[in-house]
Structures
1.
Amino acid sequence: MATTQVQDRSLRQKSIKRVVSWFDYRRRSLGMVAFILNRLTGIGLIFYLGLHLVVLSLLAKGEMAWDTFLSLMRSPVILAFDILLFAGLLIRGLNGVRVALVDMVFG
Amino acid sequence: MRWQVTFRIYRSKQDGSSPHFDTFNLEVKPDEYVLDAIERIWAEQDRSLVFRHACHHAACGACGMRVNGREKLTCTTQINSITSDGGTVLVEPMRNLPVLSDLVVDMTSFYAGMEEAQFVAIRSAEPMFDYVTKNQAEVIFPANRFENCIECALCYSACPIPATNPDFMGPASLAAIGRMVEEPRCGADPVSLLDMTDHEKGLWRCHSAFECVEVCPADVNPGGMIMMLRRQVIIRRFKQWFGIRS
């Protein structure tokens, strides 16, 4: 039993280490920056999609709940997050264009 | 002129002990190669250090390691290209392959991928370069490029994909298939070769980071070969959609 737990912990640590290796930029080239940004924006957009669905569910709670939410959304902090979201979409989209161009024209 | 250099070397044994780094101080010639220094550490300071090497001139691909975090053939990496007098050199095994002991990784899965590519490295007849015309040379010289591959696995180590997708075919085997598609030999069928790569563990798993191209010591250009294969697959699909025969 104890051996299994140790093995599970070791496997978990290895998995975390592997995921962290996506973001290890040390001594890497420019292409790796695109890879890291692609992963970061991908994770960010998945998180945003979940959040978006939760927010939309507020509509079911009535006008009052939605208006309160909208007033919260006008705060500068949330607007900063909006800019971040836009930047994420832009980076991911442009990276897609880069990959398509490299695949079909310049690669 | 002699330099004092500190070598921090990754140590890992399959005896249950934790992986760690050992430090060795060594007096070196600045233009000495990293592999020579590792050999002297083994000979003079620690005979339990395990590492792989053979030819000492970048022909066998056995001595691939990470030097100061970057994939290198240690036999052709001069110490003065990576550090200075009083500096430190960090030596680690390659990424994405299981460590057997210290600096040696298990290459079985990598070689299995190359085997799967059915790459025929030996030609039945070599081109006679002295007599080729300019037009022929344009065809023959690019076609010779992949034969440079020394199967060192540096590309597989540098690629960010196998870390979380160990089933990925990897840059070297895809490049080998690319060469067979470019110049089919020994009855190889380009269509079935393309089919071998046209899936989520093959061509389409590559995220175009081009780390493989950066570290390749033999100008194989694996990333470029992957892009070429993608173009071939897409062209073939378009032809199929519009009923055009190849």
2.
Amino acid sequence: MAGPEIHRSQAEHNKATAKKLLEQQPHHDWAITAAFYAAVHYFECWLFKKYGEHTETTIPINPDGKLEYTAHGWREQLIKTDLSRKAFTSFRKLRNASETARYLSLSRLSPRGSPDWIQSPASKYFSVEQARELVEEVLCRFVDELGIDPSSG
Amino acid sequence: MNSSKVILPNSTRIQSGLLSFDAVQPSSTLTCSVTSPERPSPRSSVEGRRLVLNSNALETLLNLLILSEELSPSSWEGPKTTLKSVEELALWTTDMVIPQENLLNHMLLDVSATFCRVPEVRAIYFQQYMGEIQFFVLLSIDRYDSQVMDRLIELEYNIRLKYSQTVFEFFYPPAGSSPDRDFIHPAARCIFMRNGRS
């Protein structure tokens, strides 16, 4: 587990990477994933500063001694509970776009059928403008809601 | 008439159609019937002593009738009752008391009734994983649509607020417009499918 300043540093590194990828077509689809993981690290920075905890260390344990929820699922529950509607919807938009950019049809879920729902790769499914909106607007909106003042990087 | 249908938790399927019920006697038992439409009804309306619902309102109301054993006829004010929109029904349900044992079924129906209003939603699957309730909302799009995602996530947020103690996961995979079988885990259960696909 990292401390809050490391999380913040990693968040800003990921955000800078996202901005670079936006300018390197057709790799702009990966900018979305970098932006999502910037959001994750910004949130972990915020959470640790507020509660001294990380998402993973607060997941409830069930009677069998196992984790009750996935880290992604629990993190979103924390965001919904502790932050604004705007923060939640911004984070969800980033996560959803990031998962679609990486998996497209969620083919990892299925042992059957044909994985050819979408006829184009993520770099064509997302336009550069849409990737830019996610990186430069949605991510910034989420960071604003956290009350974090990101560096210009 | 939209041929969408809601797939109920007990796997019973109800085909969309005109639904009418007697809303005149507040103290009487609420009865309803579903009939095949002779002509499309684009808007919900009051015809004599009966409410005639369009397909969206029908789907929502069917959900409510099925899920709510404690649905009280007195909830209806009488022959002047009108349903202007599905949203009115949704608001009306927020005051209902849901027994704990029916909570999961209520969630499933609520999610179906909520997301079926978005034309791009092609099908909805549900599965439980660890302690989470996971929904796979399949979209009939071939390109990313930021506005559609905004709308879906706003609806998702409302669901999460309503069932605030439940930990959800929502996924929105693009499924194109292929009529082929949905590509989803066999353990996932279909709770909504548009245009009668099966």
